[in-house]
What we know:
Chain A: GO terms for molecular function: heme transmembrane transporter activity. Chain A: It is found in: Cell inner membrane. Chain A: Its main location: membrane. Chain A: It comes from Propionivibrio dicarboxylicus. The complex is a heterodimer. Chain A is mostly helical. Chain A has one domain (about 1-220). Chain A has 10 helices and no strands. The model of chain A has no long low-confidence stretch (mean pLDDT about 90). By secondary structure, chain B is mostly helical. The relative contact order of chain B is 0.17. The chains are: A mainly alpha, B mainly alpha. The interface of A and B includes residues 208 and 220 of A.
Amino acid sequence: MLNAVFSLIARDLRLGMRRQADIASVLFFFIIVVSLFPLGIGPEPDQLRRLAPGILWVAALLATMLSLPRLFADDHRDGTLEQLALSPQPLGLIVLGKVAAHWLVSGLPLTLLAPVLGLQFDLSSEALQALTLSLLIGTPALSGIGAIGAALTLGVRGGGVLLSLLILPLYIPVLIFGAGAVEATVTGVGAQAHLSLLGALTLAGVFFAPWPTAAALRIALE
Amino acid sequence: MSKGFNWYHFSSPQTFYPLAGKMIPWFWALAALFGIAGLIVGFLIAPTDAQQGEGYRIIFLHVPASWMSMFIYLVMAFWAALGLAFNFRLSAMMAQALAPTGALFAFLSLWTGALWGKPMWGAWWVWDARLTSELILLFLYVGFIALQASIDDPRRADKAGAILALVGVVNVPIIYFSVKWWNTLHQGSTVNIAKSSMAKVMLVGMLLCALACWMYAIAVALMRVRKIVLERERHTEWVKAELAQEK
């Protein structure tokens, strides 16, 4: 059963590698949004340092959002999704595989890029560590919860905008604890509590989200 | 059915339509009755608040609206779950009919909160945990309405909306506690409403107004569900007969 999941992840990764422009455009969107903020609010390092965790996390949220519509759309268009739904493996497990692949091509690169962008905001090395760690722990939850929205808006007109309406409110706890972890490090409280809660959110999100996602996919395939 | 009353009988749109039509005037009457009583208690009997003066009287709309906005989301999710689990057409229609009323109450709660906040706190908006989670609740309503509006096939719209409502209802406590915690960490902007022990007469007025809002919500939801029934069943014989009769 796990073999099927791993081969699905490998397949999605291979597809992702063949469309590197898609991955790159999401990453550049992240970079551009983050870089716009200093231009909008001014270059004072003190102010930027204070705003950096929030800005980086919100930009990561939006970048993930941007990559979500494609999570199921291509498979839906060419009929692969129906075949996957007909396969003997539970659909929830297949969704989990697709979520993992999505995280590997969107959440993980964002996480790796974030400390570099953090340097633009003059973050200390402890804050950079906390930022990277919080993104590493938190972004799987974004992929997991986002999959629900991607499945619900599959083949619906205006899907992309609708997706953000549905999913962004559900992302709020992840944003609060993710950005809070960095801020707690900066203020010297320590990020432990935030990171633990973020880990709990991710575990719960990745564990439970495949069920509603699978149900939504079955509705879309009817 | 041991009680001799068959609930399933009314779960069909055809039998529910006339029943709802008969119930609507009663709920309107109850809403008016409770509303008038609540306003009399609120404006004429309840004393002026020692700290907040006359301005506090907006709670007679503000608090019921907040309660109803949360309560209606739960009711909506309940109907949505029932529709998803048992494939009742009517309960999905109920969920769809409740959403705009819930969104209206969430908006009213924010609006009256702003009107209250300006004289009391000196600001239209503060990032208080309660205000923020009410705003997020409004977002959840808007998402539900937008999702249902953008799917053309009503059956699919019902089911997709039901899943979203259920995901939302699971998330509401998580969102609420995360916002609350976020708020306590940023002590600077926290404003606590001075919850002095509320006079009994104020509480009575508030409860009467809440009942009025509740009855209003039921009346409006029933009116809306009747329209939805007509729209969806317009190809059936009974709707055609009904419409011919009304002409």
